[in-house]
Amino acid sequence: MIKLDNINKRFGETEVLKGINLEIKQGEIIVIIGSSGTGKSTLLRTVNFLESADKGTITIDDVSVDSEKHSKAEVLALRRKTGFVFQNYALFAHMTALQNIAEGLITVRGWKKSDALKRAQQILDDIGLSDKGQSYPAALSGGQQQRVGIGRAMALQPELLLFDEPTSALDPEWVGEVLNLMKDLATKHQTMLVVTHEMQFAREVADRVIFMAEGNIVEQGSPQDIFGNPQDPRLQKFLRQVGAE
What we know:
Order of helices and strands: EEEHEEHEHHHEHEHEEHH
Number of helices: 9
Radius of gyration: 18 Å
Mean pLDDT: 95
Oligomer: single chain
Shape: globular
């Protein structure tokens, strides 16, 4: 079980997150939607302390970390429970696809290099990139790079996979292959917290859709409720703007 309790974050005078509370069940797929600047990506980054919240507690299974007072060891233990997929891929340019996926197993999990490379090849097979193991990121399409990024996060077998607008940096022709991989992960009951502008993905894959506005969770529910019967005027306006009514 994953729990965010009273998460607050400000940048200077701007209050970005205003006491967010959220519980995520094992195997649940939650998609966060909302306009730019509403705190969606910041919330995601506070979950594994890429961004440290000013106040609040994050719990994943048996690890609970207080944003105001915590040790490096506690943060590391929390990060080991998560995998993060960045919108700009964030692959190591000097490493092959195989090495990018294996790296976390070696440095975070302490695997032997040979075992890590073997597991990395299995993951490349799973994500449809069997023949790209020796390719460097510069030789891969955007969609392939993002699939490697997802593979790298999958390798650690995290309790929670965090996706920060994973298709926003992609050319339109590559979006489908990344979303299809995420849909495949969903069928395997991987717990996922996804920030995205892809409304169709939210409709098809999410167990729960959360709408954020002005640093708050304004409305949440099943895709049917959020898209079919939105209650808050801000959500209604947002759905009209993105053509998702």
